[in-house]
Amino acid sequence: MRSIALLGNPDSGDGEAEQVEELLRHAGASVQPFPLDEWRAAAASGAERLVVAGGDGSLGCAAAGAAKEGLPLAVVPTGTANDFAAEIGIPDDTAAACELAVSGEERRTLELGRVGGRPFLNVASIGLAPMAAEHADDLKSRLGGLAYPVGAIKAGATAHPVSCRVSCDGEVVHDGEAWQVSVASTGAFGGGASLEADASDGRLDLVVIEGSSRIRLAKHAYGMRIGSVEGQSGVIDVRCSTVELRLEDDDECLNVDGELVPLAELLEDGVVRFSVEPAAFELIVG
Questions:
Q1: Rounded CA gap, 174 and 164, in Å?
Q2: Cα separation of 59 and 56, whole Å?
Q3: Do 118-279 and 2-105 have the same topology in CATH?
Q4: What does the pLDDT profile of the chain (286 residues) look like in tens digits?
Q5: Could you name the CATH architecture of 2-105?
Q6: Do 56 and 33 touch, CB atoms closer than 8 A?
Q7: Distances (CA, A) of 173 to 27, 166, 202, 235, 237
Q8: Which of 15, 146, 176, 274 lies at 20 to 30 Å from 80 by C-alpha?
């Protein structure tokens, strides 16, 4: 019988995380449950696998625990958007994802992004993305995954560019206004939007949407929705091992895998620093 340490976030999505323990046992595993904030203890518990049940914002800490202890990680998506699972190809059906978590043998090695020391798997962004997430929070109960594109539309109609200085591996690539600065691993975000990124290449994908007219912003927003914004004029797209971000206004939030994180929690000497751990952990994918 395979032993599993289960990290669960009962606040994700419709609360399906509470059913996961039973489904894992039904699939043939012995399960020791842990609350999400005890991810270090879960990873060090001696289990054969670490399983996390939650939305995108729950996954970074689980991946960090798996990376530290050398454990394979399995994801059971129970959030609203579940962008990571959709990008990687993990089943969105809870029972099927639990079966994969217990019985799957195929693994994929992935990198782990960090912003201010906080782990992330999809994207960390400043500008439009945090505002869109804030609007989406008020709509999730009524619209589900559609809350994210609707929130993005609202943000695009009311947001203003942020003034920032962005460096890639020590070289300044942008100094001025930007609608959005995104640092990506998988590149999936916002309930189906995406950036061109490879979570297995050991590099962060930096995308800066330069400040411009609101009309052009609508084109950029459509490009992000269909995954082609990098090819548009007014968009900077580079790959980096490290990224540094300086902002004129410290009273901002970053959207980190769908979670709003105050800039003050991530700043070090006035700079937000992003880094990547190549080949950090193994994910059960098949």
A1: 8
A2: 6
A3: no
A4: 899 999 998 766 556 767 999 999 999 999 999 999 999 999 999 999 999 999 999 999 999 999 999 999 999 999 988 999 999 999 999 999 999 999 999 999 999 999 999 999 999 999 876 555 554 455 444 545 544 454 455 555 566 788 999 999 999 999 999 999 999 999 998 777 889 999 999 999 999 999 877 767 777 777 777 788 898 899 999 999 999 999 987 778 899 999 999 999 999 999 999 999 999 999 999 9
A5: 3-Layer(aba) Sandwich (3.40)
A6: no
A7: 50, 6, 20, 11, 9
A8: 274
The CATH number of 118-279 is: 2.60.200.40
Write the DSSP symbol of residue 251: S
